[in-house]
Amino acid sequence: MVFATPVVGLNPGFIINDNIFTNDQTMTVKQIQDFLNSKVPVCDTWGTGGSTATSRRDYIRSWGYDTPLTCLRDYKEGGKSSAQIIYDVAQKYHINPQVLIVLLQKEQGLVTDDWPGPWQYEKATGYGCPDTAPCDSQYYGLTNQLDWSGKMYRAIMNDSPTWYSPYVVGNNKIYYNPGPYNNATQSYYGRFGTKADIEYCGSSTVNIQNRATQALYDYTPYQPNQAALDAGYGSVFCGAYGNRNFYLYFSDWFGSPQFGNLVRTRENATVYLISDDDRYPIADASILSSLKPFGDITYVTQSYLDAKSLGRTLGRLITSSSGTIYYFDSGIKLAFKSCAQMVDYGYDCTQPALLSDYLIGSLSTGPSMTNVFQTTNGKRFYIKSGEKKEIYDDASLQKIGVSANSNTLNESAISNLSYGSPVIRDDVIVTSRETGSKYISQNGRFIKLSAYLLDSDAFTKLSDSKLDSASINEFTISKSFNGFAQNSTGKKYIIDSYGKTLLSNPEEWLGSYTTLTDTIFGLIPNSTQPVNSRFIKVDGESTIYMVIKGKKYSIPSWNDFLNLHIDKSTKWALLPKITADSIPTSKPIYAPGGLVKSSSSAAVYVINGLLQKIALSSFAVSDDFGIKGVITIPQDYVNIYATDNDKLNNFVVCDNKKYLANRGVIYEIDAKASTMYGYSSAVGSLWDDIGCVNLDMSSRLLSTYSFVKEDDSKTIYLIKDGKKHPISSMARYDALGGLSNNMLIVSNRVLNTIVDGPAV
Asked: What is the CB-side half-sphere exposure of residue 429 using CA atoms within 13 A?
């Protein structure tokens, strides 16, 4: 069983669009001819087809006619082809030739009939053939029929006062059938029997919305009932098929007859929206795309356009006779709530495009406009004062007291608006959609985060969402965050890949710190790295640096690294590259307690502290300090060390205490020793903490040694009253209390620092 395809989309009040109905530029003569040829590839000129019982030729003869038969594609009248006749009538009355083609089909089936009879051409368009009376022969003939049909259509379209029309644009009573005939009883159904009862099948009020639909009812004054619609091209009791079939044939052959308001000429690419007697140029492709419910673009003549009043360039603002102003996109209309809201969207509320009620009705009705606009690709904008302000999240909207209610439309619908400052709360991370760059939002500015910190544990607890780069650029963007930060009270931190470290000595690092909110600091975990050791290593590199007074100094050897630690540990912190790179790099630093010289000078120096050196007067002195081996370095390396005014002698000051360097060991000169050895006025070089740590400090005070002697000498001296007294014999030495643990072996240089006294 084959089921009919129901008719979908037929609106009895708007069967065909005025612009489609009157567009005489849709087909050329050749295109009409090609179309007719396509519908009847082979014409049964001699009537040889049909059933085996009765051929078509026999049927034709039974009506008083004979072959050959002529199909519409081949038909000529007055020396003109049918295609030429159709085209000429279309141009004469400015009626779409497609309308005339459909008219020929729905009245006599001429377009698809491959063996039409001559009588079909006599009554080709059914003009002068009422449903309840015979046809008037004065209108016979293809040309005559088409011309009168075109004349009637044009008169209705022009609302001609000389052409009577029983219908109006507005409400009309339209019947479903002129009154059915009962073949079995040879009488009409209904009240009269011998004549049709038009009331029998019923009627309904139809709101005819345009002239073209009015013209169709003037031609065929009935509408299809639901059964006729459900039957497709089929027939039903009480059915009427003229306007239904017009709609079906037009839709099947040429597309929707209801939408044809988008037009252009062949010579100019400008597309116009036609509404009644107005034309609105469309300059924006996104707006044109949003008008898809109005159908495809069709071609018209320039004279057709010139007959329409030129309106303003079409924007997103439209209105109807009701006065309601709408915003439209994607075939949806959304009513504005106020003039102020229209201004927010960048429009002048006094200048919407006035469209016909039908066009307005062709757009689906959406919710009212909101100032929160969500795009189909997931972005959200707060529309205000002619700007689109991208929204970070709902919490950001709540911060400014705006509801999150929104409409979802194409982003192109707000392409007329410039970007404004984004709606974003503080203490979150924002990522650029285009570049992937990340920023911290804080107090109306963005702080750029380096790639070296993006995947660290430090910022994992912060919310992260995307914004357009154009939105981000509306804020002040601080230079890339380098990991040095301070809180609201001025406490300074380094934020590394593991978290934050409060700096115990911030003056050693940088002079400039980025201020972050206490909220952000509260979300960042504490780092376990020994940042305050000031020994750092760059992530991905092997060099270890020491940070001193805002500069980083590379450490040339592992031994130097160990000797630069006060606690002799091997601690260092791994910092992101951007953090380490933000600290200026200086020359290599060598640990205190070493000898250096320049390749361009004979001067030798002892490094006696961080970035501190003292000239060496004799290697005998460095021997007493236990310092061996001179490292030759470039002069600019030597120059980073400040030079003491004096040369190195055997006396050194550490932590405000005076010491004596002797044969590689350092002895504290306590008050007693100062008197014993006569060192009260001795001046020593000042060594810093790290320099002193690298000296071999004796656990015994110098005062515990009452006797001294040189290693290779037999002479033993008694140290007393600031002088050294040679002892005449071992017996005397023993008598003076000499023991192995109170005699100090000294260098010749140290021995010479003690004033000579008389022998004892």
From this structure: 20
Tokens of 552: 């980083």
Q: Rounded distance, CA 626 to CA 644, Å?
A: 20
Q: What angle do CA 404, 407, 409 make, to 5 degrees?
A: 135
Helices (H), 56-185: 56-62, 82-93, 97-108, 118-122, 142-157
The answer to whether 453 touches 495, Cβ cutoff 8 Å, is yes
CB 143 within 8 A of CB 79: no
> How many Cβ atoms are within 10 Å of 628's Cβ, its own excluded?
11
Answer whether 341's CB lies under 8 Å from 369's CB. Answer: yes
**Cβ distance 149 to 125 under 8 Å?**
yes
H helices within 446-517, ranges in order? 451-454, 469-472
Token pair of 280 as six digits = 């609105």
The amino acid present at 653, given as its one-letter code, is: V
The neighbouring-strand residues paired with 97 are none
Q: What secondary structure, in 3-state letters, does 238-272 show?
A: CCCCHHHHHHHHHHHHHCCCCCCCEEECCCCCCEE
What CA–CA distance (Å, rounded) separates 442 from 521? Answer: 13
> Within 13 Å and on the Cβ side, how many CA atoms surround 413?
28
The type of residue at 710 is: E
Strand ranges in 337-459 using DSSP code E only, listed in sequence order = 353-354, 364-365, 372-375, 380-384, 387-390, 407-409, 418-419, 428-432, 438-442, 445-449
Sign (positive/negative) of CA torsion 461, 462, 463, 467?
A: negative
DSSP character string of 6-70:
---S-BTTBSS-HHHHH-TTS--HHHHHHHHHHH-SS--TT---B-SSSBHHHHHHHTT--SPP-
3-state secondary structure 530-590: CHHHCEEEECCCCCEEEEECCEEEECCCHHHHHHCCCCCCCCCEEECHHHHHCCCECCCCC
CA-CA distance, 4 to 307, in Å (whole number)?
43
User: How confident is the model over 236-275, as pLDDT tens digits?
Assistant: 999 999 999 999 999 888 877 877 788 888 899 999 998 8
Show the CA angle centred on residue 189, arms to residues 183 and 195, nearest 5°.
90
> Taking Cα atoms as reference points, which of 447, 468, 469, 467 lies closest to residue 459?
447
38, amino acid identity: S
Distance CA(552)–CA(554), nearest Å, equals: 7
CATH number of the structural domain 262-365: 3.30.2390
> What share of the chain in percent tops pLDDT 70?
98
User: Strand, coil or helix: what is 93?
Assistant: helix
Q: How far is CA 597 from CA 588, 607, 611, 624, 691, in A?
A: 14, 10, 14, 19, 18
Question: What type of residue sits at position 174?
Answer: I
Confidence of residue 1 (pLDDT cuts 50, 70, 90): very low
pTM: 0.63
Which of 146-167 are b and which e, b meaning 16 or more Cβ less than 10 Å from the residue's Cβ? bbbbbbbbbbbbeeeeeeebeb
Q: Tokens standing for 254? A: 């040429």
Nearest C-alpha neighbor of 281 from the set 258, 252, 314: 314
* Residue 134 to residue 131: CA distance in whole angstroms: 8
441 CB burial (10 A radius; 0-12, 13-18, 19+)? buried
- For 367-378, the DSSP string reads PPP-SEEEETTS
The residues facing 297 across adjacent strands are 262
Ordered by start, the domain boundaries in the chain are: 18-254, 262-365, 486-581
Q: Could you report the per-residue pLDDT of 161-208, keeping only the tens digit for each?
A: 999 999 999 999 999 999 988 888 888 888 888 888 899 999 999 999
Please give the Cα distance from 586 to 610 (Å, whole number). Answer: 13
From the list 128, 154, 122, the residue with the least C-alpha distance to 140 is 122
Using the structure block, give the residue that is written with the tokens 């965050």.
481
In 3-state terms, what secondary structure has residue 92? Answer: helix
Amino acid at 15: I
